[in-house]
Amino acid sequence: MMLSLESRNNQDPRTLGNLFYICCDEMHPAGHACFAGAGVTMLKAFFKESFIIPNPVVASDDGLTLLPYAGPPLTVGGELNKLAANIAIGRDTAGIHWRSDASEGLKLGEAVAIGILQDYRRTFNENFSGFSFTKFDGTTVII
Q: Given 72, 110, 130, 133, which is the most exposed site by the fewest CB atoms within 10 A?
């Protein structure tokens, strides 16, 4: 991503007002979405995504007690994807980001994490079959 310091109204482009204009006028992936995408991708690479969470609970209507969860099985991978999505779109409702900033931020964070995992794998001296996980788009990756 490249930012250019363009002058607005023939003003010095290095002023705070112009810097704010440059940073906020353009569309950028949400930073928190990038961090969530990278973090969740790393966790999915190191933990078994298909592991079913035993005995999940939900809060009662009054919020004072926990009740057994009644629904489809919850997996580590599914819960991590939900966490990433909630972090990514959390500020969209306040009008700070567009939804595309969240989805593209998740993809960017995922791509960075994949690059780190590729580098990390090269440092292993022992037999290692690789990192395997499911990307946000549903495809399986083995690094």
A: 72
| Residue 32 is a catalytic residue | yes
Residue 27, CA atoms < 13 Å, CB-side half-sphere: 8
CA distance 64 to 82: 24
CB atoms within 10 A of CB 103: 18
The pTM of the full predicted model, rounded to 2 decimals, is 0.78
- Does residue 97 have an active-site annotation? no
Enumerate the H helices of 58-98 as residue ranges.
76-89
Of the listed 18, 28, 78, 90, which one is catalytic? 28
Per-residue confidence band for 3, with pLDDT thresholds at 50, 70 and 90: very low
Question: Under a CB-based contact definition with an 8 Å cutoff, are residues 115 and 131 in contact?
Answer: no
What's phi and psi for 66, nearest 5 deg? Answer: -105, 135
Residues in a beta bridge with 57: 68
Domain limits, the chain: 30-142
Q: What is the pLDDT of residue 105?
A: 93
- In angstroms, rounded to a whole number, what is the distance separating the alpha carbons of residues 17 and 8? 10
* Adjacent-strand bridge partners of 85: none
Which one of the listed residues 32, 77, 84, 113 is annotated catalytic? Answer: 32
